[in-house]
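Contributing new records

If you add data, match the layout below exactly. Sequence lines come first and carry their own label; structure lines follow with theirs. Keep one chain per record. Anything else will be rejected by the validation script.
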Amino acid sequence: MRYKSVLFFKFAIKIVMDMENEPKKRKRTSGLLRDKERTKQKMIQSVGKILLKKGYTGLNATAVSKEAGVDKSLVYSYFGSLDNLVETYILQRDFLNAVAKDDLVVMLENTTAVPKEAIYGLLHNQLDTLLKDKVLQKIIHWELGENKTYLRNIADKREELGEAFFKVAEPTYDKANIDLRGILAVLISGVYYLVLHAKTNGSLFCGIDFNTPEGEQRIKDAITSIILMAHEKTTAS
């Protein structure tokens, strides 16, 4: 009987100790998860730093690990491949997939048609973002010069968001036989080219200095005028 009492006492002590240690285990686990996420974010941000310093030709697992101050093996254990890491970074910087995505989703969920102000406002926002974001400029340039699967994946994700936009915005213009897709394709590609042209060599384009506030405003005014002219035809029909 006494032996059973001792066993029971030891068992009870073990339960109490396990209960005391459980919060510590959970704390250690959560701490490790936080450390992992911090390390992943550091590696993701390292991609942008390398793009600024060396361009996309300088991107490799060794460079990323050195910039982030981590072991190279983490590129593969945390992201599976360098391509996945780079894609993760670009998705966090891409205009439509990151900067404008939330506003676009909210707008499309709360309207049956897209106001003209929202259309040219979106283009103005894209212009402002590209002018300020040197890394995004390099990414656009990269997309034009390299055939990479992850760059295609990001472009395809943009197209998915674009289709959601056109599903709501296009019917108004279709009724007036206005090709909204064609108009936006020209305007968006024009914004890309003008920004890259101005920020790469700084020369004038059609006599406009795009690196000045006045030049930037002229492009915004032109975008607004084109959208308004298209929209006027929808009200006249």
